[in-house]
């Protein structure tokens, strides 16, 4: 029998695509979406719980009431938003995770997924092909929370045998989810701007290179990790996960192959400091070796698909006006 799954942060960047993906795999009635607010227009799109992950009794109620067996705990505050509200970031990202892990032990959950990030690395880590095991000295509250969270995940595995699985996502590019307070979100904004205005002002410098991934690869990585045999997942802290690395200038040139008149200017703001503290590329050798990870989308394939999907939606929206 397919286990009953809960996805927190279901209206966020990963959640808004992971929920339909899991429902297509396991059936709509097996996947409960949860978020702090009900997203507008979501009323008829499957089972939903309004849930604040900083409230452990609310988590207990949902888990018991819905008979949850597996959780994808995605609720979180991203890096740039985290710097604006560090206390909130800690409460949601770390206290929220601890609440979830406690509840997972109490309710004897079979498995928990938690997203870590390239933000676990700080300026002292090697910038290119950053290895799995190197010093984790992040300088953002988001990164500090991700390191603490990874340690918590490993602790709950060692102490209680909880099967927690964890990926260090690179910057994610999605044609569904709206950008939501991340430093890598320029790589999403840029597509919307290219299609709607034909020009974009980028908040990072032209030469800034970051590790990135197209959302279909990220969804597949998440499910492949969660479905892997337990013996193939010896690591309960985050696995480095990689697909492509590109600079802001490189993605702009790739878009220009489709929209030649697209104009980009660069006006770096405080998010530049965050980007400068992160790797340019990471080595995900262990993920490839342990559970067979392999990405499918490079920059060219991602750009064509983004423009095709978003372009069709922009056209529909224009017709409706
Ligand atoms: N993409 C995230 C951010 O920019 C990092 O994991 O905040």
Structural write-up:
- It is a single chain.
- By secondary structure, this protein is α/β, with parallel strands linked by helices.
- It folds into two domains: 5-169 and 215-240, NAD(P)-binding Rossmann-like Domain (Rossmann fold); 173-211 and 243-320, NAD(P)-binding Rossmann-like Domain (Rossmann fold), CATH 3.40.50.
- It contains eleven helices and twelve strands.
- Strands 3-2-1-4-5-6-10 form a seven-stranded parallel sheet, with helices on both faces. A three-stranded mixed sheet has the order 7-9-11. A two-stranded parallel sheet has the order 8-12.
- Helix 2 (56-66) crosses helix 4 (86-106) and helix 6 (186-196) runs parallel beside helix 8.
- The protein is globular, with a radius of gyration of 19 Å.
- Bound molecules: serine (SER).
- Serine is lined by residues 78-79, 117-119, 142, 169, 171, 182-184.
Quick rundown:
Helices cover 43% and strands 16% of the residues.
Which key features would you list for this structure?
single chain; 321 residues; alpha/beta; Rossmann fold; 2 domains; three-stranded mixed beta sheet; 16% strand; binds serine
Q: What is the strand and helix layout of this fold?
A:
Blueprint: E1 5-8, H1 15-26, E2 31-35, E3 48-50, H2 56-66, E4 70-73, H3 79-84, H4 86-106, E5 111-117, H5 141-160, E6 164-169, E7 171-173, H6 186-196, E8 199-202, E9 209-214, H7 215-227, E10 239-240, E11 244-247, H8 248-256, E12 263-266, H9 271-276, H10 285-291, H11 299-320
Parallel strand pairs: 1-2, 1-4, 2-3, 4-5, 5-6, 6-10, 7-9, 8-12
Antiparallel strand pairs: 9-11
Bound molecules: serine (SER).
Serine (SER) binds next to loops.
């Amino acid at each position: 029998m397919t286990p009953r799954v809960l996805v927190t942060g279901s209206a966020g960047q990963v959640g808004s695509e992971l929920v339909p993906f899991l429902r297509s795999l396991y059936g709509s009635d097996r996947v409960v979406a949860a978020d702090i607010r009900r997203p507008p227009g979501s009323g008829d799109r499957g089972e939903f719980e309004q849930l604040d992950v900083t409230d452990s009794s609310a988590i207990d109620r949902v888990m018991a009431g819905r008979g949850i067996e597996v959780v994808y705990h995605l609720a979180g505050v991203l890096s740039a938003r985290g710097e604006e509200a560090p206390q909130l970031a800690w409460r949601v990202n770390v206290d929220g995770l601890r609440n979830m892990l406690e509840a997972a032990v109490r309710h004897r959950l079979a498995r928990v997924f938690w997203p870590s990030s390239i933000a676990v690395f700080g300026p002292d880590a090697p910038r290119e092909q950053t290895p799995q095991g190197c010093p984790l000295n992040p300088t953002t509250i988001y990164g500090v929370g991700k390191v603490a969270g990874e340690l918590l995940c490993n602790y709950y595995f060692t102490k209680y045998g909880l099967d927690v699985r964890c990926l260090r996502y690179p910057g994610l590019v999605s044609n569904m989810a709206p950008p939501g307070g991340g430093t890598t979100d320029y790589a999403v904004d840029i597509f919307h701007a290219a299609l709607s205005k034909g020009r974009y002002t980028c908040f990072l410098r032209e030469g800034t290179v970051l590790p990135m991934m197209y959302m279909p690869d990220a969804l597949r990585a998440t499910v492949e990790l969660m479905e892997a045999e337990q013996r193939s997942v010896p690591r309960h802290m985050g696995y480095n996960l990689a697909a492509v690395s590109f600079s802001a200038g490189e993605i702009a040139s790739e878009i220009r192959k489709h929209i030649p008149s697209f104009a980009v200017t660069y006006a770096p703001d405080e998010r530049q400091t965050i980007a400068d503290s992160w790797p340019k590329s990471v080595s995900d050798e262990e993920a490839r070796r342990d559970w067979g990870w392999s990405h499918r989308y490079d920059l060219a394939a991602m750009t064509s698909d983004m423009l095709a999907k978003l372009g069709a939606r922009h056209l529909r929206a224009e017709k409706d006006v």
